[in-house]
Each structure stands twice: as C-alpha cells, then as structure tokens.
Amino acid sequence: MNYKRSSTAGRRGDDEVNITPVMNLFLVLIPFLLLSAEFVRIAVLELNLPSATAAPQQNKNNNKKLVLIMLRIEDNQIRIKAPRTSGAVKKDGADYQFEQLVQELKKLKKLFPDTEEVTVQPTDNIKYETIVHVMDTCRDNGFPNVSISG
Fold first, then answer.
1. What is the C-alpha separation between 26 and 42, in angstroms, rounded?
2. Distance between CA atoms of 82 and 112, rounded to whole angstroms?
C-alpha cells in the first residue's frame, strides 16, 4: 500500500489558543457577579459604634438632655437601665420573654419620647441570634439607633 504523507505531519506550526470561549464565560459571569453584589449589602446589620472624636462634636450640636438607655443581656435575664427606671426581662426556659421586653421598651419610649438611642451590652456567652433579636426588637419599638458595647 502506498500511503501519501501528509503535508502537515512533519511541521509544527504556532497554533494560537482560542480564547473566545473564555471571553464568553466572563461576559456571562460579570453581570451575574454585579447583580449578586447587592444582596450582600442587605444581610449586613447597620450599627452605630461610638467614636472618641464624634462625642465632643455631638455635645456642641445638641442642646437636648442626653438619655442613656442600656440593655445588658445576661445568661438568665436582660437588665434594662435608664435614668429614672430600671427593670429586667427574665428568661423563660430556653428563650427570653421578648413580649415583656416590648412592653418595657414602650414604657421607656413614653418616659423619653425624644430618645432614639439604645446601647446593647451582651455578656461573653450570649448567642448571636439573641443579640440580633434584641436589636431588632429595639428598632421595631421606637429606638432606631442601636449601639453595641462590649
């Protein structure tokens, strides 16, 4: 048999890599990543952390009376401390009595209607879900500026 030798078999050419499929992949991925970046922002809790430089400016601008409301989350209760009142929300079994916390926050809002700030102070072994639930309860009951303290 007489086989004819291929003309391309003996030489090796500089074949270029076809990058069109890779570019198509990026063309699809980039809009998807840009759209999903908005969902990351939704899951973030916005906190008002105290800063040392903002405190003197705040006192100069506001002539209102400063009211400090503290919610200390402990193992068996949530202690509420305010200038003319204090209270506690006991733990009922495995969970805190958040209905009682709502009632206490409504009482505080009646006493201090201009106050919008609450400071939450959890102890070391409090679950994250409990902290978030307390912060959400404060926001839902007239205290939109929730700070966290250690």
1. 25
2. 10
pLDDT of amino acid 62: 54
88-112 confidence digits (pLDDT tens): 888 888 888 889 999 999 999 998 8
3-state secondary structure the chain: CCCCCCCCCCCCCCCCCCCHHHHHHHHHHHHHHHHHHHHHHHCCCCCCCCCCCHHHHHHHHCCCCCCCCEEEECCCEEEEECCCCEEEEEEECCEECHHHHHHHHHHHHHHCCCCCEEEEEECCCCCHHHHHHHHHHHHHCCCCEEEECC
Residue 117 near residue 50 (C-beta atoms within 8 A): no
Token pair 């405190």 is found at 55
CA-to-CA dists, residue 96 to 29, 67, 90, angstroms = 45, 25, 6
Which domains, and CATH codes, for the chain? 68-148 (3.30.420.270)
pTM tops 0.70: no
Structure tokens at 105: 């926050």
Rounded distance between C-alpha atoms, residue 116 and residue 77, angstroms: 23
